Amino acid sequence: MFSTRFGIIGKSWRLGQSEYAGSVPTERRQLIFEWGMTAAEAPQAGHGRESFGCVILKNVVNTAIAIFYFDSPNQDAFGDNEKWKECENAVLRGCEKTGLTAVLDKIRDELATHSRLIKIHQ
Prior knowledge:
This protein is an alpha+beta fold.
């Protein structure tokens, strides 16, 4: 389970925009200050991963509905910022072309309407 509160997923979700980090610090203070982790969470962070990326999927009214998450044990695994933008755009086009974004939006709406036990992050 990934948190929408901290790390790149949390940053991306809170900002409502895709994010990429080719190299994430491992120093405890930086993880707490820059990545929103607690002192207890910081030592567990990354699990040997160096590169992280999140593509925010939005519905037709521009509301964030899901995150397409990447990670890698290699530093700069998804290239520089220009290459990352190409990757992000390919994910967005693929999700649109296959209808994934529309299906996820429908699932989100159904869960929000019919279930009081499932927390939907918005």
